[in-house]
Write a structure and sequence with these properties.
Length: about 210
């Protein structure tokens, strides 16, 4: 990363600490950073450490935590047209990196579903430092959507589990989709065809965004 980008990251970190950041300022700052350096730049801004050790063996069907690349998340926000009125559910939210960026860029409420307690702790600490009060981190098996509330509108997945877990998750999500229209965003996670989901993003995009039909 260039020295100028490191300096910009430090200035933006101070903006966050002073609660003077806005979605427009953050978008403009990200746009000025080379795409290959944006993930590292954001980690400096948010003062994120490497992901905590996974600790105890993960439940069968779950995968170790990896932060979602910024490029895919930004495309998801654009193609899904995420607004401040949305409730954004980060399925397998890890240490809260994606959830923090979503709230800073859109103002949407965020629910993070994460099965590992050490990652929930890291996520809550990040939200406390940033003063993001519309983020709730829930320790929960994301394959079971009993924690989802009636107001959830956007669901986001970045490889949170394997094929069997994905099947279980989609079964639960279909029940929610029968009650209202939802948007489902995935990054590096091909979905099996589902008649109740319609692709709304370009086929060659870094992410895929679907809308449900009630």
């Amino acid at each position: 990363m260039q020295i100028a980008d490191r300096e910009t990251a430090e200035r933006f970190r101070l903006l966050l600490e002073d609660r003077r950041s806005t979605p427009t300022l953050l978008r403009e700052a990200l746009a000025r950073v080379s795409p290959r350096d944006r993930d590292a730049w954001l980690d400096l801004v948010l003062q994120l450490e490497p992901p905590p050790d996974d600790g105890a063996e993960l439940p069968r069907g779950c995968v170790p935590y990896l932060p979602c690349p910024i490029a895919g998340l930004l495309q998801a926000l654009d193609y899904a047209d995420v607004q401040a009125s949305d409730v954004f559910v980060d399925v397998g939210s890890g240490a809260g990196r994606s959830g923090a960026l979503v709230q800073l860029l859109t103002g949407a409420s965020v629910i993070g579903l994460e099965i590992q307690p050490q990652l929930i702790q890291a996520s809550r600490e990040l939200m406390r430092r940033l003063g993001l009060t519309r983020f709730v981190a829930v320790e929960h098996d994301a394959r079971q959507l009993t924690a989802a509330s009636s107001g959830d509108t956007v669901f986001f997945l970045y490889c949170p589990f394997g094929p069997s877990g994905l099947h279980t998750f989609l079964e639960g999500l279909e029940q929610i989709a029968q009650t209202r229209e939802i948007r489902l965003c995935t990054v590096d996670l091909p979905l099996p065809p589902r008649p109740w989901l319609t692709l709304r993003s370009p086929a060659n995009a870094a992410c895929a965004v679907y809308r449900s039909s009630v």
